[in-house]
Amino acid sequence: MGHKCSRGGERPYCCDVCTKSFTLKNNLITHKRSHSGERPYCCDVCSKTFTRKSHLVIHQRIHSGERPYCCDVCNKTFSQKSHMICHQRVHSGELPYCCDVCTKSFTLKNNLTTHKRSHSGERPYCCDVCNKTFIQKCHMLKHQRVHCGERPYCCDVCNKAFIHKSHFVIHQRIHIGERPILL
Q1: pLDDT digits (tens, 9 = 90+) for 126-151
Q2: For burial by CB atoms within 10 Å, which of 14, 34, 64, 92 has the most?
């Protein structure tokens, strides 16, 4: 059975694997890499590979430190234009992503997606050791440190190491004589 492809001159380039179609042949070529696994663009510093040249260019800014986009309000710089645009919402107060259940609004689409899980109960990230589930991937990754013994936060005074940054910050207070605030 053939794939449907919207013709009409608008999207004449069709993927022969899935139903996606494209206005430009180059977009089809790039899309097909998602099926083949081909990643022809390689970082000459760390050898990480990419399906698109534009993604390689953005990645290379990690190594070069280049931050070509600048907020015209506070002069904070960014490696990606999209990050600067999201940042500028801090100044404008714009909250373009709105929850259709409780009307809470967010500056980032990802934050709305995560928030919606509080309504649906969806917990898509699962620890492969104990099967505990999480709303956010970062929470699952932090949790997995319990199983692997990773303690990435190390006190430079006494060399005590911690799984969580919050515990490390509280610990550091003992060296300056500050007592933790108990709620």
Answers
A1: 999 999 999 999 889 989 988 988 89
A2: 14
